[in-house]
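Q: Structure tokens for this one, please.
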Amino acid sequence: MSKCLVVFLVIIADLSECKKLPASFKKCSRNDNQCLTLSIKDALEQLTVPIKEVGLPSLDPLEIPALSIGAGTGPVQFNQNYKNFKIYGFTKVESINATLTENILKIDLHVLETLSDFEYEVDGKILIFPIKGKGTGMITVDKPEFILTFNLEEYEKEGEKYLKVINKTLSIKPQKMHFEFSNDLFGGDKEFTNIVKTAMNENWKDIYADVGPSYEEAYGQIFMSIFNNLLSKVPISELFNS
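A: Here is the predicted structure, written as tokens:
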């Protein structure tokens, strides 16, 4: 069964002339990967608030107005429809390594924890349990690793050279996941909801194996959109020292 994915992310467009990197961002030589690693780490840690001059949103939380993911083929056989999806934790960097080689940017990012809260509406089956309901929920991921690759391409605009992401891959490796859902998950049946939540948390690896690729695709699209918004404003001459 194919998995349907819809992501709605609001980014404010700025069509004015080319911009410089914010003064608080560290600039590096294009071939200095050690500097690049430190620069990206520092930039991520600053994004507890939006940096509007280059169109960067806050990453703590990263707000996604709507997110829909189709049913899996394993234990998660229900459509997932989310609103007001907020992800916390991307600025809490535990370790990072970044390399830029021949227009391929690779980032290996470890954060301490991500916490997502949201409004949900689901219909289908999880594990052996029928499920239909809506309410609020939260997912906590312990020490996830994000392995992100951006394939970049140069282009020219108004006499300046810019970069854009033309392809991306993302792998997410969680150490542990914990699910919380409101009692509306089963029409207000608190006892049954607790049974299912316990089963989900005990079988989180199987659940993630089923729906993880869809979330990787969704998060990858979001990261690419955010990065392309920055790259469309800041020319190569302003991104690097040389």
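A few notes: Residues 204-231 form the longest helix (28 residues). The chain has four helices and ten strands.
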